[in-house]
Specification:
- The protein contains 23 helices and six strands.
- The protein has 583 residues and is mainly alpha-helical.
- Strand 1, helix 11 and strand 2 form a beta-alpha-beta unit.
- The strands form three sheets. Strands 1-2 form a two-stranded parallel sheet. A two-stranded antiparallel ribbon has the order 3-4. Strands 5-6 form a two-stranded antiparallel sheet.
- It has helices at 7-14, 32-43, 47-62, 69-76, 88-99, 103-113, 118-136, 155-171, 193-201, 221-246, 269-282, 304-317, 348-354, 361-372, 376-408, 419-425, 446-450, 454-465, 470-474, 507-519, 524-538, 548-556, 563-568, and strands at residues 259-264, 289-294, 325-328, 333-336, 479-484, 487-492.
- The chain is globular, with a radius of gyration of 29 Å.
- This is HECT-type E3 ubiquitin transferase.
- InterPro entries: E3A/B/C-like, HECT_dom, Hect_E3_ubiquitin_ligase.
- Residues 282-583 form the HECT domain.
- One of its GO terms (biological process) is regulation of signal transduction.
Length: 583
């Protein structure tokens, strides 16, 4: 009772130096092993001791403006007894005090959470989830009745804010202490998620209600999929209503205006799909429900034709003969082909400023002025190259639109992109007004490159760790050599890079430039087209809620099958679960 009765007693017992003033950002300066031992022992003691401790905590929590407040709260919030329903009133008050600490103390708390043992952090998350459930889904048990709902509206926001501190601490660790799915509160799948999302979207100043969408890391992938579906349905209804208003005077089937109707020939799948998507984009119809027709084939699309179109189009675009994507066998994934005209030592940001559509009048005038000075063969060659580049960028845009339509229409695609692709796709998650830095991953790492070329990433790690003379032993220059489709292409990583040797002193710069070139600069135009295609369909505030890994799951489905889940929904007809064929 004495120990937990005041911040002074708590800090005197658990601080490494009881006379130390102030606190450090990097370390709480607590005897953490001793604290863990006390809490482990306390967990095994009888309920009467638990009640004494909780009563004492009330006195401590009611104290204000005392030194070491944030340190004392860091100690208290780890208490294992907060996993019991009987402690929820005290836990709520503690969380409220933590949330009302100044921003500098919050920053300190986030840093301190990073040094917790993983099981302790996981236990804290479990206690907070249990607390959220008690408030969101109150029990009918009269022995554990909560105060009136109007008096405890602040419970859920304070618990969510505490989880946000844990999420911030977790995301700043490499690797994270917890998998992001461990912060999902899957019971929230059963609340009215559409209402929660639209409450979050409400721009009116009087709308100050709490929304779980403010803390998207709490919502499971199933919850986010439902929100995206509801948002898609709402936008589809808005577009259908607009079509109804604009086409009221025309002789148009009343059913057709509610759909994005596309007709393609199997023999000209990519070409026809590009034309249909361009037409739909001009009419602002991409956000309607997709309905496919294959030319010359009778049939009504009830979902099967759309799914077949997705499959056939993905198969054709990723065909090696197309030369748009390169398959990397070591990682078993595809990555964007690096064009022969890839940008070299210019930065991604200069590339983003320089990108102009082939139809741009300014670009056209500049090209025309250059062409006047060339001979006829050069003119023809350059026009052909420009035409091929334009067609290539259109097809990258088509893949982006395809991914967007798949998410929008709840279809799974058989795509094998690395996770860094989805990270780039959300950089930024909403297309900015200024066309800068689209799809550029900030500070790419060797782990990002290892998703595509693990052998190259390993080689670069070896280069950084090499103890000998890099210049004499490795004979490298500031160039990148890439083998694609049986041909080796070499590009300088900086101006004059072919003449600059890699040494022990500049090898870090070499690796940094290599990563930025491979993942950003070399494919900037191609990925920009891909990015804009995806966002032309999926532009939505709901996208802000998603992590790159979650976008990947929405596009491609689960990367791993959980057989236990499959067994739970399996029905047997003429077999049993123990049958040899089933096993």
């Amino acid at each position: 009772m004495r120990t937990f009765d005041s911040y002074v007693e708590l800090c005197a017992l658990f601080k490494e130096n009881p006379h130390q003033d102030g606190a450090r950002l990097v370390d709480p300066d607590l005897k953490m092993d001793f604290l863990y031992a006390v809490y482990d022992a306390l967990r095994e003691l009888p309920n009467s001791i638990h009640k004494s401790v909780l009563k004492s905590m009330i006195n401590a929590i009611c104290q204000e403006n005392l030194p070491d407040e944030v340190r004392a709260m860091y100690i208290l919030v780890q208490c294992p007894m907060f996993g019991h329903q009987s402690s929820c009133l005290i836990f709520a008050q503690l969380l409220r005090r933590i949330v009302h600490l100044p921003a500098s103390d919050h920053q300190m708390l986030v840093h301190w959470l990073k040094i917790l043992e993983v099981p302790r952090l996981r236990s804290m998350v479990r206690n907070l989830m249990h607390f959220l459930s008690l408030r969101q889904f109150p029990t009918a048990d009269p022995t554990h009745a909560l105060p009136e709902p109007n008096k405890i509206k602040w419970w859920i926001p304070t618990a969510a804010r505490m989880l946000a501190f844990i999420n911030a601490a977790n995301n700043s660790c490499r690797p994270p202490l917890l998998h992001f799915s461990e912060l999902y509160h899957e019971a929230l799948d059963h609340i009215d998620l559409a209402a929660d999302y639209f409450r979050w979207q409400d721009p009116s100043p009087c709308s100050s209600h709490f929304s779980y969408c403010q803390y998207p890391f709490i919502l499971s992938i199933n919850a986010k999929r439902l929100i995206l579906t509801k948002d898609s349905e709402q936008q589809q209804m808005i577009n259908a209503r607009r079509s109804l208003e604009t086409k009221a005077s025309r002789q148009v089937s009343q059913v057709d205006i509610f759909f994005l109707n596309m007709t393609v020939r199997r023999s000209h799948l990519v070409e026809d799909s590009l034309k249909e998507i361009q037409r739909a984009s001009e009419r602002k119809e991409l956000k309607k429900k997709l309905r496919m027709t294959f030319a010359g084939e009778p049939g009504l699309d009830m979902g099967g034709l759309t799914k077949e179109w997705f499959q056939l189009l993905v198969r054709e675009i990723f065909d090696p003969d197309k030369g748009m994507f390169v398959y990397h066998p070591h990682s078993r994934c595809y990555w964007f082909r690096i064009p022969s005209s890839a940008r070299t030592w210019d930065t991604a940001e200069s590339a983003s400023r320089a990108v102009t559509a082939p139809s741009s009048p300014v670009a056209g005038a500049a090209v025309e002025a250059e062409l006047v000075q060339d001979d006829d063969d050069a003119v023809v060659a350059r026009l052909v190259a420009a035409s091929e580049e334009e067609e290539s960028l259109q097809q990258y845009n088509l893949i982006g639109v395809l991914m967007g339509l798949a998410v929008y229409n709840a279809n799974i695609l058989d795509l094998r992109f690395p996770s860094v692709c989805y990270q780039k796709l959300l950089s930024p998650p909403v297309v900015p007004h200024a066309d800068l830095h689209l799809g550029v991953v900030r500070n790419p790492s060797l782990d990002d490159l290892a998703q595509i070329m693990p052998d190259v990433a390993h080689g670069l790690r070896e280069l950084l760790a090499y103890q000998g003379d890099v210049e004499q032993d490795m004979c490298l220059t500031f160039q990148a050599s890439i083998e694609e489709f049986g041909a080796v292409k070499t590009f300088p990583l900086k101006q004059g890079g072919e003449d600059i040797a890699v040494t022990n002193q500049n090898r870090k710069e070499y690796v940094r430039l290599y990563l930025d070139w491979m993942l950003n600069t070399a494919i900037y135009n191609e990925f920009r087209s891909f990015y804009l295609g995806f966002h032309s369909v999926c532009a939505s505030n709901a996208l802000i809620m998603l992590r790159p890994e979650e976008v990947e799951m929405l596009v491609c489905g689960c990367p791993r099958f959980v057989l236990h889940d499959l067994r739970k929904v399996t029905e047997y007809d003429g077999y049993q679960s123990e049958s040899a064929a089933v096993q």
